[in-house]
TrEMBL record:
Membrane topology type: Multi-pass membrane protein
Annotated protein name in UniProt: Transmembrane 9 superfamily member
Pfam families xrefs: EMP70
InterPro entries found in the cross-reference section: EMP70 (IPR004240)
Any GO CC annotation of this UniProt entry: membrane
Length: 202
């Protein structure tokens, strides 16, 4: 019954394509880092090498991120490809870097030895703007030049009427049930496990 509405372009197609492109970038970074760690090239005990490898791989995988984002955005009928590329290269990375910079400022203020030096932050910004952003633009260029993805079925011109939703299918209760219940189960199990391990210690 819904085959003619499944492939309808979403309301926020730009945001969806940007998040999917950034997700591909993070997924490939995680996959290659895990492969290197399993093969013995990276030791989890040495967190510095692990983080450096992850950052370099994330920067280098800007090409597939931009490619996937542009291809998906074009299949939604989007025409603002420059905004798409800019958001793909800046949105998720910018949010993470802003949080990282803010926490680092607090560490600097407290005089902690865990604070990252200013030169390292400049190096991270250089990697981001001089490597990741151009690679994202190149990937988006090739992705936008490709032929539009063809849907297996045709989309109806008139959308189907969505019936009234019950309270537990609304977004907020779904978020609460999807987050609180697993957290509660894990917390209780960990509480009993750690209590049984450390109960004899005073």
């Amino acid at each position: 019954l819904v085959h003619g509405d499944v492939f309808r372009p979403p309301r926020y197609g730009m945001l969806l394509s940007v998040v999917v492109g950034s997700g591909i970038q993070v997924f490939l970074m995680t996959l290659v880092t895990l492969i290197f760690a399993c093969l013995g090239f990276l030791s989890p005990a040495n967190r510095g090498y692990l983080m450096t490898c992850s950052m370099v791989l994330y920067v280098c995988f800007g090409f597939p991120g931009g490619y996937v984002s542009a291809r998906l955005y074009k299949s939604f009928g989007g025409e603002k490809w420059k905004s798409n590329v800019l958001l793909t290269s800046m949105l998720c990375s910018g949010v993470v870097f802003s949080l990282f910079f803010f926490m680092n400022l607090l560490l600097w203020y407290k005089g902690s030895s865990a604070a990252i030096p200013f030169s390292t932050l400049i190096a991270l910004l250089s990697l981001w703007f001089l490597v990741s952003v151009p690679l994202t633009f190149i990937g988006a260029f090739f992705g936008y030049r490709k032929r539009t993805l063809e849907n297996p079925v045709r989309t109806n011109k008139i959308p189907r009427q969505i019936p009234e939703q019950t309270i537990y299918t609304q977004p907020l209760p779904g978020i609460i049930m999807g987050g609180v219940l697993p957290f509660g189960c894990i917390f209780i199990q960990l509480f009993f496990i750690l209590n049984s391990i450390w109960s004899s210690q005073t």
